[in-house]
Amino acid sequence: MLLRISSRLCRNQHITRGIAISQRNLSNLKEKRADDVVITFVKRTAIGRAKKGQFKDTPVDELLSSLLKATFEETKIDPSKLEDIVVGTCHPPSPLYISRSAALSAGVPSHVPIQVINRLCSSGLMAMRSVAHAIQVGDISFGLAIGVESMSLHPRPTPELSATISQNPQAHDCIQPMGWTSEMVAQAYNISREKQDEYALISHTRAARAASENIFADEIIPITVQASPNSGETVRVSKDDTIRPGVSSDSLAKLQPVFPNWGNAYTTAGNASGVGDGAAIAILTTRQRAEKEGWNIAAKWGGCVVVGVEPRHMGIGPVFAIPRILEKTGLNKDDVDVWEINEAFASQFAYCIEELNIPMEKTNINGGSIALAHPLGMTGVRLVATGLAELKRRDEDILCTSMCVGSGMGAAAIFVNERP
């Protein structure tokens, strides 16, 4: 009896110490310092349905240029003061050339450099990380991070391996279609079709509600693009055209598998992320410079991690990335107020949520990529724009974003809402 009481007391003391440490770490993370990397602006364009939606004919360079012009107009920042621009994108050809051209056409002076990053689904977040790290080491103090993708005009190309490389099982798995990895996760971790549809319904329902209440207006920056190629007419785009109101359990259950030859064939057009077009942007600087320039501070950069996983189970990346970023920042799950976890497929999303025991009431509160779509390069910044907008509505502190990454990786990041 005494041994059991002693063991219980030790366990309770350990829990108490863990809570106290977490509270100290949270307090430290929220502390405001002159050299903090901060976000002064983060917005996204509306999202268009690939091949059918409002950006189906809009090239990546036009998306980028239009977003930059709208950002400069809204924020009144002087683009000549920029020290670097980093663009996260995946599949357009010659992406650096078109990104540089887009920036110049938007009024960015030629002395401002630019680079492009491709880490597939996390490319936008990697752009933010690149700028944040450059600021932290003192290379720059003011930069832009952008995520962009036109899946209408530049769908995923089919990767090819040499015969020698493809004999390696992991190398073979690495280049398989993402739908195949969804089915492999569902099969390996016994994620039923019914469970996938349940999580998909949550996403569709929440996004439809948010759209009807005009909640996304807080994170969307309207942009002006050509109505059609070479038409000379323009259209102002400010609302997603990807959201499908009225999705129900019955309508999801009636959908046929889109990958009938793989695994258990549970993935459908209703429980997988939509294919879409769009862009998102973040302005990063130091707290000291933001205060000197009189710029509003939206959030503090808390940190970012990237991990690798088995390529065939690509979708479980957040299961390893999220604990790593919590460990890095000294936080625990209860410290996170809002989670934005990308819904590449309901199979992997369901597994990540349940394996990590993350509360759905705090996760993808206004729906996720299953409802909104997942323009690959855009998503890493889109999650931040969406999550921070929700944090501000709730007047809470900590956002954690995470996503799986094609070829077998996962990424996660922490952001701190700027409060008085």
From TrEMBL:
Alphabetical list of CDD domains matching this protein: thiolase (cd00751)
Ranges in coiled-coil conformation: none
Gene3D superfamilies registered for this protein in UniProt: 3.40.47.10
One cellular-component annotation, GO: peroxisome
Alphabetical list of Pfam families matching this protein: Thiolase_C, Thiolase_N
Domain named Thiolase C-terminal: residues: 297-415
Protein name stated in the entry: Uncharacterized protein
One of the record's GO molecular function terms: acetyl-CoA C-acyltransferase activity
Alphabetical keyword list: Acyltransferase, Transferase
Pathway: Lipid metabolism; fatty acid metabolism
Native source species: Clathrus columnatus
Family to which the UniProt record says this protein belongs: Belongs to the thiolase-like superfamily. Thiolase family.
Every Thiolase N-terminal domain range: 37-287
